[in-house]
Amino acid sequence: MKNRLKVLRAERDWSQGDLAERLEVSRQSVNAIETGKYDPSLPLAFRIADLFGLPIEDIFLKD
Amino acid sequence: MTMNPAQRRYLGRMVVVSVTYVAAIFLAGSLLPKGSPATPLSVAIALLPGLAVFGFIWAIGRYFSELTDEYLRLLEIRKALVATALALGVASSWGILEIYTDVPRLPVFWVFPIWCFGLGVGAAVNKLTFGDGGCA
């Protein structure tokens, strides 16, 4: 699944570590999600959406 | 890389269980000559290191359940699956070899060390497929 995490993070000038800290996950997790190696669970996807104040479908896109 | 709380607890438990395991091995080795008759007492003493092995497995299970980071948990579970596949595969294949050929017997004792070795293989598989080995 594609996602706009890297762009959204860059818009806020956050490093992967900053985003990981806000989501309470590891930096490895953020990197794996950003690069499309790992699709987050629905609860984590909602946490990401809440953090950016966007609907999930504006962050995660169908292939 | 800094350790998360689950990793710290896991490491602490592994240290305690490892010390217990080594102490139990020394105790069994010093009290029981090799090939001692199987009496209730000798069996109880010889099983002490086995209890420590259960401790290792318990610590690993606790670690899986305490890891709150779902991606890291995925990596750890994948390592355990690779380790299980390797241990079962090696034990079963060697067992078949023992039935049909005169290869030396593989003591069942080795199944858990093979499984632990498999965790390392699993970390390598994770590294190749995800780019991350895991966290323990």
From TrEMBL, chain A:
An MF annotation (GO) of this entry: DNA binding
Give the record's keywords alphabetically: DNA-binding
Protein name listed in UniProt: Transcriptional regulator, XRE family
Domain (HTH cro/C1-type) spans 5-59
Q: Entry's PROSITE patterns?
A: HTH_CROC1
> Looking at the Swiss-Prot or TrEMBL record, what is one Pfam family this protein matches?
HTH_3
Q: Which organism is it from?
A: Sphingopyxis flava
Q: Does the keyword Nuclease apply?
A: no
Lineage, top-rank taxon, reads Bacteria
UniProtKB/TrEMBL annotation, chain B:
Keywords, sorted A to Z: Membrane, Transmembrane, Transmembrane helix
Q: Which organism is it from?
A: Sphingopyxis flava
Record-given protein name = Uncharacterized protein
Task: Give yes or no: UniProt keyword Transmembrane.
Answer: yes
Mind telling me which residue stretches traverse the membrane in this protein? 12-32, 38-60, 80-97, 109-130
